[in-house]
Amino acid sequence: VRKAKMMNYRIQSANAATATLRLTFNVSGYPAQIIIPKYTKFNAQDINGNNFNFITTQTYYCIPDSDYNYIIDIEVVQGELLEYTWVVSNDQTIFTIPNKGVDTRRMHVQVKQSDSDLNWVTYTESENIIDNTETSTVYYVQEGAGELFEIYFGDNKVGKAISNGNVLKVTYITTDGLSGNNLTIFNLLDTLDYPCEIKTIMPSANGKNIESISSIKRYAPLVRNAQNRAVNASDFEAIIKEKISQIDSVATWGGEENNPPIYGKICISAITSSNYELSDTLKEKVNKLFNSNNIIGSKQLYWVEPQIINIIPNLQVYYDSTTPLSQSDLELILRYGINVYN
After folding, report:
1. What is the C-alpha separation between 309 and 288, in angstroms, rounded?
2. This model's pTM is above 0.90
3. Most buried by CB count within 10 Å: which residue of 34, 93, 123, 336?
4. DSSP structure class, residue 263
């Protein structure tokens, strides 16, 4: 992690799974709208009975259709909402968020001049230091010790600095990452103006754990070599992995290596953290990464759909014959272990 920091590599934090729910309200009368506030709480259970918290990250307004049905689709994000505040003192420059599992792409950072000041200024994460001036209200993120993320600010040359007496507030989500995927049954925890039925339109997906050491070892050198421009296949792989958090695994190769050859193109195959093929929306998001002048030559992206191989294991189990566990007990333990491994 320290070496990656020296290479200016942005380590991927955990990524919160998202799900799409359809709420159908049972109303009395004809209200103009029903409000689902920002940070409305839901929960879901996995097959082992573990509970996972979900929240909305925006306010939704449900208005009636032509038949006065109140139906709305919303997105919920897996995790718990937390907030931490510092009063800057002793020329402090690095601020450690005291929780693991933070989804850094969903952080909200605000700064005000003093404790008595009423005006908060929102800072955005800097992804390209070249674009920053001495007045840019940006912050930077890096991984510190113990998988805790740190934020820091500019120096009035590259990004606006903060000073003693300033108040820093960070609102963030801590997530269970990969464990929050594939959940289908949701319950509303908060109370809305009217009762509603919940139907899952899209199960929770795209949750990821913090980037592994092996991934950092692979991608930190590739990103440094790419220098935010795409020339060869490894450059494309590095930029996609760095910029698109929903993608868990990506392979790229030159079209001349394809069978049959597709000259002048870069072939890409990728899956999400839920082992799903990429949607058209996500592919378009990848395409937009390379619409600027960071491509040298006339290479274009050529998508190759991944082949998903389902493995059916045939297991032979050895166990201590003196165990007091029954056959059903052993089967339960084995199935749980297989599910965890999967």
Report:
1. 30
2. no
3. 123
4. T
d(CA 267, CA 263): 10
pLDDT per position as a tens digit, 115-148: 999 999 999 998 777 778 888 999 999 998 899 9
Map residue 188 onto helix, strand or coil. strand
Show the tokens assigned to 229.
Answer: 């421009």
SS3 80: strand
Cα dist from 32 to 62, 65, 332, whole Å: 9, 11, 51
Give the whole-angstrom CA distance, residue 65 versus residue 218.
Answer: 51
Q: Tell me the pLDDT band of 293, cut-offs 50, 70 and 90.
A: low
Q: How far apart are CA 313 and CA 316, in angstroms?
A: 10
How far is 91 from 11, CA to CA, in rounded Å? 26
Q: What is the pLDDT of residues 144-173, one digit of tens each?
A: 889 999 999 999 888 899 999 999 999 999
| DSSP 8-state assignment for residue 178 | G
Please, are residues 70 and 24 in contact by the beta-carbon 8 Å criterion?
A: yes
3-state helix, strand, coil in the chain (%, to 5): 20, 35, 45
Cis? peptide before 313, omega within 30° of 0 = no
What DSSP letter does each residue of 86-145 carry, written as one string? EE--TT--EEE-S-SSB-GGG-EEEEESSTT----EEEEE-S-GGG--TT--EEEEEE-G
Which residue, 33, 101, 128, is CA-closest to 71? 33
Residue 52 vs residues 14, 48, 154, 177, 215: alpha-carbon distances, Å? 15, 12, 37, 11, 27
| Average pLDDT for 43-47 | 90
Output b/e per residue, 44-62; b: 16+ Cβ within 10 A.
bebeeeeebbbbbbeebeb
